[in-house]
User: Fold these one by one.
Assistant:
Number 1:
Amino acid sequence: MIALFGGTFDPIHNGHLHVIKELLGSKRFEKIIVIPSGDPQLRAVPIASSKDRLAIVQLAIADLKLGDLVEVSDYEITKDEPSFAIDTVRYFKKIYPDQELSWIIGSDAYSKIDQWRESEALRQLISFIVIERPAVESSRGAGAGATKDQEDDDGYDSYGYEDIDALSISATDIREKLSKHESIADLTAQSVERYIIERNLYGSA
Ligand code: ATP
């Protein structure tokens, strides 16, 4: 199974890297493909440019030293039109026609999945690996009644919750700390912190 991990990654942080390491550690995945988004649909426009966000993701992933197990894709960032997950999934389905694909997503983002373009079609193409995020109200926490490896009415195994002791780190916290010139050394890779400060991203200088 190949897992796609999309996000704004503004910037990528240890919370994301922990997810990647834990899921690969489970040996269920052949590969994780990290896909920084172009223009997000459901939130404010990212603060760092797509070029910087991609560079930061590449640095952090290189630092993990996991070789071919993790790939970074510029598919969404180099697209001219706004990117939707459904387009990305169709693109990767063409590249890997014989592989099962899944989409890694935090419980916060999953609670808004019905707002995603063609969310039903998306569910037919992939399964979701939902990561419980601490201190974030999730659809499960809100009483949606989700259980592990939930099946839709049609029996399609559309999502499963993963409890991997996710870290309570968000990109928002990191941007706030940087704007106050506080250290983010414990929150992301050293190479990422260096890149951000050298280029004065997020008002860090
Ligand atoms: P922001 O604070 O700017 O909203 P974020 O930290 O949530 O950003 P994103 O790039 O929006 O990061 O997240 C990409 C994906 O990773 C989303 O599915 C999100 O739910 C998930 N994610 C983000 N942080 C964590 C974390 N600490 N643990 C597990 N999953 C996470």
Note: The longest strand covers residues 2-7.
Number 2:
Amino acid sequence: GVFSSRGPEGAGAIADAAPFVVHDINNVLAVIGGGLRLLECQDDAACRKAIVGKMEEAVMRVALLSRQLLDAARPRPKSIDGLVEGRRLAAMAGTLDMALPPDITVHAEIAPDLWGFNADPEELYFALLNLCRNAADAMPDGGAITVAARNVESPAGAAREFVEIIVVDDGEGMPEEVLSQAFTPYFTTKAPGSGTGLGLPQVQRFAERRGGAVFIESERGAGTLVRLFLPRVHAAGRPGSVVGTEIAYTPS
Ligand code: ADP
């Protein structure tokens, strides 16, 4: 199946999710409250232990939920966009494997004549890293990720020219019901603590803020392909705009 970032989940989706997270937190607090009332009149030690275990789990869940909210609400440093060109993207892609498990390799295939595009290099790096982490998570026994970039004249009939960056894995893929929710903030299939469900929404926001888009194609058991489209920017740039300024990229 294919799923795209266009739809009800727009750029403000993280803020929109806050009431739902608060709702979740209240539900978990209700569980804890119920557990406490049960404990009060519980004489059996084994039973008390089970209740306390459930309540500890619930406390951890609330802690995770509130951490997610804080992360989403934290003011981010302002984006500093600049012209990103093929060689910079290639250098960046070449450092991605350092942040991934040792049994994961990253093949970078950046078209030598790649057009320039506008992005904050730091945000671009984290967007790519998010996608590669997801790919690595889908290949628990290790494997290869391809990060490729090419020029696209007019994807799906669009009037503009785009640079397309794809991240491909041949991991476990997503069933339809996961794919259709993949861009929903806080949606995760990962264990609490290892997934926040904010990776793809962040990538989506990164693309859409620059007039781009992100699409996912995935097949259960076959793998996943994420397509990131960013509008072409000409090196000349308009006077007074940051376009055309090259910004030093330092992986962190
Ligand atoms: P997180 O990685 O923290 O769970 P994301 O928003 O990045 O949050 O991803 C949401 C969900 O989409 C993941 O939990 C996973 O189920 C699914 N997913 C994302 N990328 C991939 C991939 N490359 N292969 C398989 N499933 C994926």
Note: The chain has a mean pLDDT of 85.
